[in-house]
Design brief:
The protein is α/β, with parallel strands linked by helices. Helix content is 34%, strand content 17%. α3 packs parallel to α4 (111-121) and α4 runs parallel beside α6. The chain binds S-adenosylmethionine. S-adenosylmethionine binds at residues 31, 35, 37-38, 76-77, 79, 105-107, 129, 168, 170, 197, 199-200, 202, 206, 328-329, 333.
């Protein structure tokens, strides 16, 4: 690590003493699925391409964050694999000084053709969102009969050499235990880490989906599989239950029933350059305007340092569920 990086690595401390070292970078707000808790089927309010940050602008912003101590970047969206030449962007970010980990969240529909290129470009870890293994239910949840593509994409990811693939499954009001069992068996068979996620009231679709606490399901799974509390490396917000021999883990991401804001180490950047300091708050800081006005590196660093000081202590999903107007696909999940 060069001297400038080690000296500045404390600069991304927020006003509550949390070190922010993780950026969720949305490379598009568009998606080829319409998950009913994420994006309304008839949604038309996407950003125009002229407003998207270019690869050069993204690289400049990530470099600035990295100068200040950022270590990890996750490419997300929308569906990131819809962004043309994503592997080229990945290769640029993976080699930036200070960036130790480049990962990707995807719905998997286009992984089959892109997995190898992304792996070669330096993407080291993969999260695939998959809520069910039932083909007709998949179509009902996402608006598209695309389960075979996603499963083929996962196979391609394994063949490309991705290890520690995580499957993110949103627990919906009508998700039954049989579906969770089927997903558990599938993940066991393929060596994937399963994570169950509580629905958040983000955007109008997220609010309409309703909320189901994961706690009862957690206790049922603990009893059924004899799972115990465990730790899985990665530093994320999931709490894990593991089998006694350590061969299998299920993670629970419970932003509502058991929030983890006190350990939040991340910020989000939208495709049009808005810096979102908290997933559960509407405020954002516009970075695109200063960037396009020719801001110097020193002034950009200062904007980031000051922005971080205002990172909210926690989300307000319970007190103000109507607050987050942005869709999850726009913020970058
Ligand atoms: N398209 C990519 C994917 O599918 O992973 C990245 C973006 S997607 C918005 C990221 C994650 O957010 C997905 O796992 C999705 O299920 C989750 N998500 C979207 N809306 C949500 C909500 N209201 N509550 C909880 N999770 C949500």
């Amino acid at each position: 690590m060069n001297q400038r990086l080690s000296k500045s690595s404390a600069l991304l401390l927020d006003g509550h003493g949390r070190r922010v070292e993780y950026l969720r970078l949305s490379v598009t707000d568009r998606c080829d699925l319409r998950c009913r808790y994420c994006l309304p089927r008839d949604y038309r309010g996407f950003q125009q391409p002229a407003h998207w940050l270019s690869f050069e602008e993204i690289e400049r912003l990530v470099s600035a964050f990295a100068r200040l101590g950022l270590k990890r970047v996750r490419l997300t969206g929308g569906e990131p694999l819809l962004r043309k030449d994503l592997a080229e962007l990945a290769a640029r970010l993976a080699t930036l000084p200070g960036i130790e980990d480049l990962s990707l969240s995807t719905n998997g529909t286009r992984l089959q053709t892109q997995a190898c290129r992304l792996r070669d470009a330096g993407v080291s870890r993969l999260n695939v969102s998959l809520d069910t293994l039932d083909r007709s239910r998949f179509a009902a949840i996402t608006g598209r009969d695309a389960l075979p593509e996603v499963l083929a994409g996962l196979e391609a990811a394994c063949a490309a050499g991705f290890r520690l693939i995580k499957i993110n499954m949103v627990a919906l009001a009508d998700t039954d235990d049989g579906e969770v069992d089927a997903m558990t068996a599938y993940c066991l068979e393929h060596g994937f880490v399963l994570r169950l996620i509580e629905t958040m009231p983000i955007g109008e679709a997220g609010r309409r989906a309703g909320f189901v606490s994961l706690r009862p399901l957690q206790e049922r799974l603990r009893a059924r599989y004899g799972l115990v509390d465990g730790l899985v490396p990665g530093g994320g917000p999931a709490r894990y239950l593991v089998s006694p021999d350590g061969s299998f883990q299920i993670g629970f991401i419970t932003p509502i029933s058991q929030h983890f804001c006190e350990t939040c180490n991340r910020v989000r950047l939208t495709v049009d350059g808005q810096l979102c300091l908290c997933l559960g708050q509407n405020d954002a800081i516009d970075l695109r305007t200063p960037l396009r006005a020719g801001i110097t590196d020193a002034a950009l660093d200062q904007i980031l340092i000051e922005a971080l000081l205002n990172k909210p202590a926690r989300h307000e999903f319970q007190k103000q569920p109507q607050q987050v107007l942005r869709f999850m696909s726009a913020t970058g999940g």
